[in-house]
Amino acid sequence: MEIIASTNQIVTIQQTFSPALPLIFGCKEYQEEVELLDRINRVLEKSGLEKHFVEKSLIKYEERMKEEGKEVTPWMKSYHAVLSQRVLRYNILRSLLGESFRGMSKRLAECCLFQHFCKLAELGGVRIPSKSSLQSYEHWLSAEEIKELLNKLTMALADEKQAEEMGLEEVIKMEVFYTDTTCLEANIHFPIDWILMRDAVRSLMKRIITIRRHGLRKRMPEPMSFIKEINKLCIAMSSVRRQEGSNKKRKAIFRLMKKLLRKVEQHAKGYRRALDEEWQQTDLSRKQTQFILRGLDHIIAQLPQAMKQAHERIIGARQVASKEKILSLHEKDIHVILRGKAGAEVEFGNTLFIAEDASGYIVTHELLKESSPGDANLLLKHCEEIQQITGQKIKAVGGDRQFSTKATKQLLKEKNIFNALCPKDVAELSDRLTEKEFKRMLRRRAQTEGRVGIVKNVFLQEIPKAKGFEHRAIQVSWAILAHNLWLIARKALWKEVELAPLTVPLAA
């Protein structure tokens, strides 16, 4: 494969010889897995997705090296291009398998099929990336750049020539789409009052333990004793809830928590000051020191508000406005989302918008950093974008009643798009149920709920483990890309052609 770098130089990726996959008999599921990865491999190569990813990676690499004042040799470009090719496949495969970074590293070491898909198999031996490397590879590109890959894949599937090269009998028709929103929950603890105090004690003490382990020690009780003490108080707080006079007992326990947290705060400030002044006495570099200091500062700065928030809830028995709450000490871009659903009256996270076509292919998505402007506004925002991406005229739009407003109805009417949004008015809904096409699309819209469940529970492993909004957005983008490739490989109409092999066969 030849790649054009930002300097207009051609970078060639040299294909290496790989041992053939072993012949496996008697396992139908394994053969289906081979066929699935064969098809995904063909889509990556023939759609130009892999080439675009490597080009983007090389441009960023050259810009970074230029900023650092380093020269980029042809060998370095070639090596980075090969690594980028593998990074793309690592991330797709990990989302397909729903594995953790540690589990993914282990699966790559165990399975020859996965090694061939990721282009790792070589005659001299196989070097498997570690869990830490896989974690850094997930952030290879930003969420916006990964979304560009998704758009490129969508355009390739809608193009007749490229669809034929991929082995499809026909283009993927994206004339009808269905929309939905969901809450992508954050990995936080609940309730968000006294539990914040426990999280603060744990976070600060773990950082102090790290500082002490690297050679800087000040007089204080054993750090683990503070974690044990806060755990005991948390157990006591939970157990008195149903006891007689529970309110009085909870207030007494909370006061002990505040007293303990103030002690921890003083120790943390002392260690923070000592590390900043005496870091040369440790085996830490200045960069590592700054990382620890930022972590301490981040937690210490939130302690007054966290204690006040818990005080208002437990001592004052007063509600705290959502916009004034700290929902997590480590996640600042999450919101309280009122869903009103059974088992999920209130959720904590970010709104995720999804638009899929009739086959289940996700045409576009958006993870919102700020509070949602409303489902209808999201539809208005993305309607034009979908038509530009697919290059096909939208014929119909389906969605639940939250998308149905005067503005959306007017937009669909102006663009001559069939309105299959569920009306809010019961009388209007009764009238429209007499329409055969509306009734069919309304019934089909229920499958979108299942699509959301597949993305969240399978490809995102229920609650994303990534920390910070930017990292969660990247994880969502990788999950959507892997989902679309998986869907095409399983559901698209494929010609009876020989698929691109996962290995380069050895000469006889």
Describe what this molecule looks like in 3D.
The protein is of the alpha/beta class and 508 residues long. It folds into three domains: 2-142, no CATH class; 173-187 and 332-459, Nucleotidyltransferase, domain 5, CATH 3.30.420; 194-324, no CATH class. It contains 17 helices and eight strands. The protein has helices spanning 28-46, 49-67, 74-97, 101-110, 112-117, 131-138, 143-158, 160-166, 194-213, 223-239, 246-278, 286-314, 375-390, 406-414, 426-432, 436-459, 469-491, and strands at residues 2-4, 10-12, 176-185, 335-341, 344-357, 362-367, 396-399, 418-421. Helix 9 packs parallel to helix 11. It is globular, with a radius of gyration of 27 Å. Residues 504-508 have low confidence and may be disordered.
